[in-house]
């Protein structure tokens, strides 16, 4: 389309044509309650598919069985966290910490490449908000009917529709609360207890707490969570650079905007000012005002604009995923930018450390505790004894027989009355007392205290490669 460079009607168009900076409006469009207009298109199909998979996995994962128990179960009461064949304990929280760090850097890595795409396609807040909007649409109708219902006086029809909607929202929130708590309490027990009102007070309280949070967040707050509560919206721009792909309006092509008939000759830009990009936006912004932190990169405005461009016979892509350099016709260095490479290297390093930590993860936990009441004891047969308590935990999901051994640095050995093999059940910790002695060689006058080091080793007899050792001091007497 031809551009009128001398036009002063639209300052945005003039600045875009001259290559000058375009003013950015940082506030969403103020148009009351947002009722999202339903939009079809490739990006909305992708978003709907990913949101549906996320919700489906969220509810189905607790029902996956594994070796007679729930595959993923975070048993807070017993302090056992089961992930299929891996059981983690509080002392293994470094693994979870690494997972969170990796997730954070992976999010930064994706953000520097494709902007706030996580929020638009995979964020639980977005997924559940769109699910609640779908429920609202089925009961109250499309966006125009919902706006009309808001303005209509209270009547029996309005009461029935609003009551049905909030009842459906409450039920969806309750099911979501059950789905969340099912990761902490076996799902096969939780759902029957909740819906037969036989659950304990605290279980019921937690389920309804998360049900209420879901009802408020996805039903009432929706975009307010993205605009005012989500911290990611505030610091995401620090990860952007001129090569980051974001949903962008091509002002140089679209301005000056204005309505026209199809196939009408005009000197206006390609934007027909249909306002569909605003009507379909979940956060209610006008993408034509430039990059705004409220944009969640869901692509709804892209699909709406492409649909309009098709109707008017214009090329698609007036609103599209594009970088600042691309819009300014500059060279795009998406895969060689400093941030992209830096975050990529950071993710690889974190993954390597996590893999190493996971590889070194021990299935046996050993803690050696000395008797703190006395450093040593002299007994009648010429021995000096030290007492220890071995805290041995079987961190696997099967019972195992273990061998306890001691690395000698002198004439040390287990007391004869103690056994060196123990059976520890799955997930249990055994407190095992051990006495270590040293036979005195002679009676020393003026002997002084001597500290030596001994090491206890616990070995899994069914898999000798699984072993763990810990050193501890041994105190005795020696000559000068």
- The number of strands is 16
Overall form: elongated
Biggest pleated-sheet summary: 5 strands, antiparallel
The gyration radius over C-alpha positions equals: 33 Å
Give the terminus-to-terminus CA distance. 101 Å
Assign the structural class, choosing from mainly alpha, mainly beta, alpha/beta, alpha+beta, or little secondary structure.
alpha+beta
Number of domains: 2
Which whole number gives the mean pLDDT? 85
**Number of DSSP helical runs:** 16
Question: Which range does the strand content fall in?
Answer: 15-25%
**Helical residue percent?**
40-55%
Low-confidence stretches: 1-30
Name the descriptors.
alpha+beta; single chain; metal ion binding; transmembrane helix; 4-stranded antiparallel β-sheet; 4Fe-4S ferredoxin, iron-sulfur binding domain protein; Electron_Trans/Redox; disordered N terminus; about 475 residues; Immunoglobulin-like
Write a concise synopsis of the structure shown:
The chain is of the alpha+beta class and 480 residues long. It has helices spanning 11-17, 42-60, 93-114, 117-121, 124-140, 143-151, 156-181, 187-195, 201-221, 223-229, 232-235, 251-254, 276-279, 300-312, 324-327, 338-359; strands spanning 65-66, 69-70, 72-75, 80-83, 86-88, 246-249, 319-322, 364-370, 377-379, 383-394, 400-407, 412-414, 421-424, 429-439, 448-460, 467-478.
Care to describe what's here?
With 480 residues, the protein is α+β, with helices and mostly antiparallel strands. The chain folds into two domains: 19-361, no CATH class; 364-479, Sandwich (Immunoglobulin-like). The chain has helices spanning 11-17, 42-60, 93-114, 117-121, 124-140, 143-151, 156-181, 187-195, 201-221, 223-229, 232-235, 251-254, 276-279, 300-312, 324-327, 338-359, and strands at residues 65-66, 69-70, 72-75, 80-83, 86-88, 246-249, 319-322, 364-370, 377-379, 383-394, 400-407, 412-414, 421-424, 429-439, 448-460, 467-478. The strands form five sheets. Strands 8, 9, 10, 12 and 14 form a five-stranded antiparallel beta sheet that branches. Strands 13-11-15-16 form a four-stranded antiparallel beta sheet, with no helix packed on it. Strands 3-4-5 form a three-stranded antiparallel beta sheet, with no helix packed on it. α2 packs across α5 and α5 (124-140) packs antiparallel against α7 (156-181). Mean pLDDT is 85; it is low at 1-30. The chain crosses the membrane at residues 48-66, 95-115, 167-185, 197-218, 340-359. It comes from Shewanella loihica (strain ATCC BAA-1088 / PV-4). This is 4Fe-4S ferredoxin, iron-sulfur binding domain protein.
